[in-house]
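ZP: hey, is the magnesium ion complex queued? I don't see it on the tracker
AM: it wasn't, my bad. submitting now with these inputs:
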Amino acid sequence: MNRPPPIATNNHDQAQQSTFKVMLLGDSGVGKTCLLVRFKDDTFLCGSFIATVGIDFRNKTIVINDKQVKLQIYDTAGQERFRSVTHSYYRDANALLLLYDVTSITSFNNVRAWLSDIHEYAHSDVIVMLIANKVDKTTERVVTREMGEKLASEYNVTYTETSAKTGLNVEFCFKAIGQALLQQIDSTITNGETPSQTLNTLVQLNDQSQRQPLCCSYS
Ligand SMILES: Nc1nc2c(ncn2[C@@H]2O[C@H](COP(=O)(O)OP(=O)(O)O)[C@@H](O)[C@H]2O)c(=O)[nH]1
Ligand SMILES: [Mg+2]
């Protein structure tokens, strides 16, 4: 299947805007809704309230390379409980964020099943990011970075770690996805890499910047 087109693009130089659909996937309870709320409103909602309310989608416009990129971010709103996400959900996606919870080995083990559904129903050039969420819960963590990276490289998808609670990497993820999507439709910004390679590069740079030792202080 070919990639679904971005929804609207107007070609005025100053106000060029592209709209992309980004879908959230993963087991119930991994933090999809919280990730969306963190990105949209920069707040963290905890407890049962959010699980029952469910959210359909939220729009957020970001600016990348002086271009306005509107992301329509869809939440599964409960369909994921029995992995009964409708096929059109996959089909309409320009990008998929597949989450698991680093404190739940079950949610990690189910990633393979989610990836096989993606492979079956999504467009072949959909951009996929595997997201290890809840990394703030360090003492309860059971799924290591190495496990996540190994699985991601096996399926050739980009891996990154987030916390919807602290906000770690949340904005980064959506911006990196936006940049890769923009590159997919605008060949003038390719720099010789495929959109997926660009996404990997952005993640590597982001990881490196977070691993930099704190700079020495002068006395
Ligand atoms: N500590 C922590 N808790 C989180 C994080 N993300 C979500 N949660 C909690 O995990 C539970 C499920 O989150 P929710 O967004 O409803 O998951 P969903 O079913 O995938 O949409 C809620 O109690 C959230 O407060 C996170 O990054 N860190
Ligand atoms: Mg939810």
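AM: back. Residues 7-210 form a domain with the Rossmann fold fold (CATH 3.40.50.300).
ZP: great, adding it to the tracker
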